[in-house]
Design goal:
5-stranded parallel β-sheet; Rossmann fold; Luciferase, domain 3; alpha/beta; disordered N terminus; GMP Synthetase, Chain A, domain 3
C-alpha cells in the first residue's frame, strides 16, 4: 500500500488557531501565502488570494444588505467560486445554503423560499433555467457564478466591486454557517443548521488522535468531486482546506476527469462512494496511472463489496476507510479503518466501524431503553458534531434530538463486543441510491397528481449499480389506464431525475395495517428476498 506512516498528525498546523471557518484562509495565508489553495479547471488560487477574495465576498454581501444570520443560497456544480462564496459568507456571519444542482426549478425555489435567501448564486448548468427561477423567486437576486447571462451580474464582477478590507464582523463558534437541505419524510425539505463548532471542533479532536488514515501532511492534495449540496461534498472540501491541503475541485464526478486529476495533480486523498469507485475501475486507463502518491481513499454511503475492494486494492494500492454519518451529524461519526479492510474477507468488512473520537453511539429499543451488545435497535449518537437543529422546525428537531443530546439516526443496527457498529436496516423509509437520499413521501407527492393514479407507494429495491433504485407501486383508478413509461415521464416533469422511479409495478391494492398505514416493509420484502439485510 501507499501508506506512509507518520508519528504525528498534521503537527505543522495549529488547528486551535482556526475555531471558526472564516479564519481558515487567513491562517493558511499567514503561513504560506503563495501556496496553492485551490485549483479548478486550470485556474489556480493561492491562499493569499483566496483570503482576499473571501474578504471581498463578505463586503459584497454586507453591501447587498445581508446581516449576520441571514441566508444566501447557491444552486451549482462545484467550482472555486463556490468555495470563495463559502468562506466569504463565513466572514460576514451569513449562512450559505448549498442546493443540489440536479433539483428541478420548483424544488430549488422551495429551498430558497424556505431559507428566505435574498441572493441565489447560479452555476453554468442553471443558466438556461434562470428566467424560470427568477419568475418563481421575484424577490431574490440571481447572480451567476461563472457564465454571463442576460440581465444578471457575474460573481467575479460583483466580488471585485467590493473592498478587500477585513469586514470586522464578530464570529463565534456557535454561529450557524452552513445550512444543508435534506428531503423531509413529509415531502417538505428540512434545513439542517450546522455551526462552526459542528464543522470544526470534531475534526480538531480527531486530529489529536493518532489515526494514520486521518493524518494530513504538508503538500497533501485533496480531490473534491462529490456535489456541494451534500455534506460528503462540501464537508470533505472543508476538511482539506482546514488541513492546508491543495484542493482540486472537479465540477462533477466524471470518472475520466477524476483519474486525470489524480494523475496530473498527484492526489494524496479523495472521498468517493462505492459506485464511483466501480466507475473508475471501468476506465480504460485505470491501470496505467501512477498512484504512488495516493495514500487513502475514504468512501461512504454504502459498504464496499468484497470483490470491488479486492480490485480497488490491486489497482490503487492505497488504504481504504469506510465512513458512516449523515447530514445531521455533520458527516462522519463512525469509521472502518484500513486495517479492517481485508481483501480476503473478514467479518468486520460488514461493519460500519468504530465511533470517531468524541462520538458516543448507543442502540435503543422502541421505548428508548439501551440495548446490550449484539441486539438490534435504533442507532443513536451524541457528539459535538450533532446539528444545531432543523431551520424553523422545532417539532422535527425535538423528534430527532433528545434533551440529553442523543440524535436518532433512523437506522437500525447493533454494536458488537468490541464496539464496532453494524447497520442492518433503515428504520425510516429513506432510499439511498447512488449516495443520493430520497424520501418516498416526496416522490409520492410529486407523482400522485397523475390523473390515472388512485394510490401510490414508493420503495427502494436492490440495484447492482446504484445500491438501491426507486420503484413506484401503483393502484390505478377504476377504469383508468397508464403504462410504466407514462408514470415515469410524468415524474420527470415534477422532480429531479435521480428521484424519478426506475420501474413501476401495478397492483390491485396497497397492503395496510389496522390504522390504514401502508406496510412498506411488506411491499419491499419480495424484492429483497434472499438477502441478509434490507440495505444494499
Amino acid at each position: 500500500m501507499n501508506q506512509t506512516a507518520t508519528s504525528a498528525t498534521s503537527s505543522w498546523i495549529d488547528h486551535g488557531a482556526m475555531p471558526t471557518m472564516d479564519v481558515i484562509p487567513r491562517y493558511h495565508a499567514s503561513l504560506r501565502p503563495g501556496a496553492i489553495a485551490v485549483t479548478f479547471e486550470g485556474r489556480e488560487t493561492d491562499w493569499q488570494t483566496l483570503d482576499k477574495h473571501a474578504r471581498q465576498v463578505a463586503n459584497a454581501l454586507i453591501a447587498a444588505g445581508c446581516k449576520p444570520g441571514d441566508r444566501i443560497a447557491a444552486a451549482c456544480k462545484n467550482s472555486d467560486s463556490l468555495f470563495e462564496l463559502m468562506f466569504g459568507a463565513a466572514k460576514a456571519g451569513v449562512v450559505l445554503a448549498p442546493i443540489v444542482w440536479r433539483l428541478a426549478v420548483p424544488e430549488i425555489a422551495q429551498v430558497v423560499q424556505d431559507c428566505e435567501a435574498a441572493l441565489l448564486f447560479l452555476g453554468d448548468e442553471q443558466i438556461e433555467r434562470a428566467a424560470d427561477l427568477q419568475a418563481a423567486l421575484p424577490n431574490t437576486r440571481l447572480i451567476t457564478l461563472e457564465a454571463a447571462a442576460p440581465g444578471l451580474t457575474r460573481f467575479s464582477e460583483w466580488r471585485d466591486a467590493a473592498s478587500d478590507a477585513e469586514p470586522g464582523v464578530s464570529i463565534t463558534p456557535d454561529d450557524v454557517v452552513i445550512q444543508l437541505y435534506t428531503s423531509g419524510t413529509t415531502g417538505k425539505p428540512k434545513g439542517v443548521m450546522l455551526n462552526h463548532r459542528n464543522l470544526l471542533e470534531g475534526r480538531r479532536a480527531a486530529m489529536d488522535t493518532p489515526m494514520a488514515w486521518n493524518e494530513w501532511q504538508e503538500g497533501d492534495v485533496n480531490l473534491v468531486a462529490l456535489p456541494n449540496g451534500h455534506i460528503g461534498g462540501i464537508g470533505w472540501a472543508l476538511v482539506g482546506f482546514y488541513n492546508g491541503a491543495t484542493t482540486i475541485v472537479q465540477r462533477e464526478f466524471i470518472p475520466a476527469d477524476v483519474l486525470a486529476a489524480v494523475e496530473h495533480h498527484r492526489v494524496t486523498k479523495l472521498f468517493a462512494v462505492p459506485t464511483a469507485l466501480q466507475m473508475l475501475l471501468m476506465q480504460p486507463r485505470v491501470r496505467e496511472i501512477d498512484y504512488s502518491r495516493l495514500r487513502n481513499i475514504l468512501y461512504g454511503a454504502a459498504p464496499i463489496a468484497l470483490d470491488l475492494l479486492r480490485e480497488c486494492t490491486e489497482v490503487f494500492g492505497c488504504g481504504f476507510c469506510q465512513q458512516y454519518g449523515m447530514t445531521e451529524t455533520t458527516g462522519t461519526i463512525v469509521y472502518l479503518p484500513p486495517e479492517d479492510h481485508d481483501a480476503a474477507g473478514n467479518p468486520r468488512m460488514r461493519a460500519a466501524g468504530l465511533p470517531m473520537p468524541g462520538v458516543e453511539i448507543r442502540i435503543v429499543d422502541d421505548k428508548g431503553a439501551v440495548l446490550p451488545a449484539g441486539e438490534t435497535g435504533e442507532i443513536e449518537t451524541r457528539s459535538i458534531a450533532n446539528m444545531v437543529g432543523y431551520w424553523r422546525q422545532p417539532d422535527a428537531t425535538a423528534a430527532t434530538v433528545s434533551a440529553e443530546g442523543w440524535l436518532r439516526t433512523g437506522d437500525a443496527g447493533y454494536l458488537d463486543a468490541d464496539g464496532y457498529l453494524y447497520i442492518q436496516d433503515r428504520i425510516k423509509d429513506m432510499i439511498c441510491s447512488g449516495a443520493e437520499n430520497i424520501y418516498p413521501a416526496e416522490v409520492e407527492s410529486a407523482i400522485y397528481g397523475h390523473p390515472a393514479i388512485q394510490e401510490i407507494a414508493v420503495v427502494g429495491v436492490p440495484d447492482d449499480k446504484w445500491g438501491e433504485a426507486v420503484k413506484a407501486i401503483i393502484v390505478l383508478k377504476p377504469g383508468a389506464s397508464a403504462s410504466a413509461e407514462d408514470i415515469i415521464s410524468f415524474a420527470r416533469t415534477r422532480i429531479a431525475g435521480f428521484k424519478v422511479p426506475k420501474s413501476v409495478d401495478f397492483i390491485e391494492a396497497l397492503p395496510r395495517n389496522a390504522t390504514g398505514k401502508i406496510l412498506r416493509r411488506a411491499l419491499r420484502e419480495p424484492y429483497w428476498a434472499g438477502r441478509d439485510r434490507q440495505v444494499n
